[in-house]
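Cross-check.
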Amino acid sequence: MTEATPGQFTLRSQRMGALPLLGFFLERMGLAERLQSYLPRDDARLRLAPAAVIGVVVRNILVARRPLYGLAEWAAPYDQVLLGLEPGDEAVLNDDRVGRTLDRLFDADRASLITGIVLRVIREFGVSLAQLHNDSTTVTVSGSYAEADGRPRGGKATAAICRGHNKDFRPDLKQLLFILTVSADGAVPIACRVADGNTPDDVTHVPTWNELRALVGHADFLYVADSKLCSKEALGHIASHGGRFVTVVPHGRREDTWFRDWAQSHAPAWREAQRRGGARLGDPERIWRTFEAPAPSVDGYRVIWVHSSGKAARDAASRAARIEAGLAAVDAVAMRLAGPKTRLRTRVAVEEAAAAALSAAGATRWVGFTVSESSAVAFRQERRGRPGGETRYRRSEKPVFTVSARVHAEAVAYDAATDGCFPLVTNDAAMSPAEVLAAYRYQPSLERRHHLLKGPQEVAPVCLQTPQRIEALLLCHFFAMLAEALIEREIRTAMKSAGLAGIPLYPELRDCPCPSAPRILEIFRDVRRHQLISEGQVVQSFEPQLTALQEQVLELLHVPASVYTGAGAS
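Predicted model, tokenized:
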């Protein structure tokens, strides 16, 4: 922004925002260097270097997600040097040029590009790969994408955009499957890939684990995932190749039903594994206890049962609510039967209506019903007219049904005996049950990355011209997630070393114990540099004055303040 001042001087204001901070981390990641290697400027007709365009896209995802057609407008107020551009380059930053650059990114050796950047991050930041967590989510897309059927492009396979089990609860839209793996050392993204939208999760673990083994260089790392990992093929593949795993056994498997039957007549020897305060002030403490099942899984792996006091309370409350809903549902059917115009005139119809009501309430297991039948006698004149002493009447009977609910007390008692219990399975013989639980309980940190992908990064819904551009854009989101994770890991580690319980990032200067990357970047949003210009020359530059909080955050992140002032900001 340029503002005229009295005389021959003009005042130019350039936004800096969080770009200098991000540039510091992206440089440590080696992003620009790697992009230049895999996306060379080998065509003299290119007005912008492909690596620079991808760098702008990544920064835009991190700072303020804008559609591709809005990149030029978004970049205009910023110092172009901070975006990796030359002055005036933002004018040619249109969506068509960005789209063609995404095509080039798809055609590049993306696997080697990701590996090179991740290995640089591991060396630069000292990220441990001893424990890796995997999970997948769906990326919902807008548009028909009729040609996105998995056909190859330039000899490379493309993911099919199709309908499947949509985790965004949008079955009306097509999707892709985004598979992400993070390290337990700060939830730093280590690997990602895109699969067809209708790919079931259980078949993704073997190829994912093979890729991780190649990345890590050996198989002796702990692989943690949700219940979709618990299949004979996936667990057998990992175990036979020297790998270790931890996952949860799905409800209804033999190991699950055996323990619940066994617990009806036996008292498990629970041992406390973790204890934490209540989620809210005044809530009871949350306690996790473990017990190693006396019998292994059907494939011979260790089964560790966990009892969570919080889950036990939720299970009991959920069951009670469903029982109440089931009783109310049966009462509603009884009221229908009592009406004079009921259409439930046969026993079969009544039973079907009551069963459907219980199923809709989710209470079939704990609530049953009894249908009783009686006869209602009615008398009707044989002929029309005023009744008299000689009027003949015809006697008729019709069945009358009533329905009453009953609670299956034995089923309630059976389930209550194992409230709050869930089984974990592992092939690691050296880990204690408490360590197995601790490893699995880190899984929500991976789900936090999916939240950032769909929340602040606003990945969905995606609407681009070609499916390969979507895959390339998802790779840009992966780079952005990697930068966010490193920022969070760096500041939380520094806070722990400094003995800080929190820093005042929240409104009203309230302490934030676990700073998130979006909140950290937000406090730098309004940082600007002002320049006094005369006859096209900078007469004087007014560097930004950082607040005490901004300086504290930069110090915790080990980012020199010079990135915002002097030569470090130009």
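The mean pLDDT is 91. Residues 315-378+393-415 form one domain. Passed to J.P. for a second look.
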